[in-house]
Design goal:
This protein is an alpha+beta fold. It has a single domain, classed as Alpha-Beta Plaits, CATH 3.30.70. It contains three helices and four strands; from the N terminus they run βαββαβα. Strands 2-3-1-4 form a four-stranded antiparallel beta sheet, covered by helices on one side. A hairpin with a 2-residue loop joins strand 2 and strand 3. Helix 1 runs antiparallel to helix 2. The radius of gyration is 14 Å and the shape is elongated. The N and C termini lie close together (about 10 Å).
Length: about 110
């Protein structure tokens, strides 16, 4: 089985999350991007404790596409240092994986 991953990023606005999602799917870099939110984040930034309302994007893709996914997120993201994390997929239903491959041109 090819290596599949979920790439996550959080952004401050629903519109930005939608822009990131549309570009990833339109360019066949992600088969699907789920947008979850709003939710509250608490984090340290420049030595201060900050709070923000954010939206989470979860992109379904293949590991070999990660660098292109990352470049697309960075091009469209508004944060100075956006969260971009890769979560490996250990297993998946055969039908879903087949659909995923078809969407990614695999």
């Amino acid at each position: 089985m090819k290596k599949y991953v979920q790439v996550i990023t959080a952004t401050e606005a629903r519109e930005n999350a939608e822009k990131i999602a549309r570009e990833l799917v339109q360019n066949h870099l992600a088969a699907c991007v789920q947008i979850i939110g709003p939710f509250k984040s608490v984090y340290r930034w420049k030595d201060e404790i900050e709070e923000a309302t954010e939206w989470l994007c979860i992109a379904k893709t293949r590991r070999d596409l990660y660098k292109k996914v990352e470049a697309s997120i960075l091009r469209n993201h508004t944060y100075e240092i956006p969260e971009i994390l890769v979560i490996p997929v250990a297993e998946g239903s055969e039908d879903y994986i087949s659909w995923l491959d078809n969407q990614l041109g695999g």
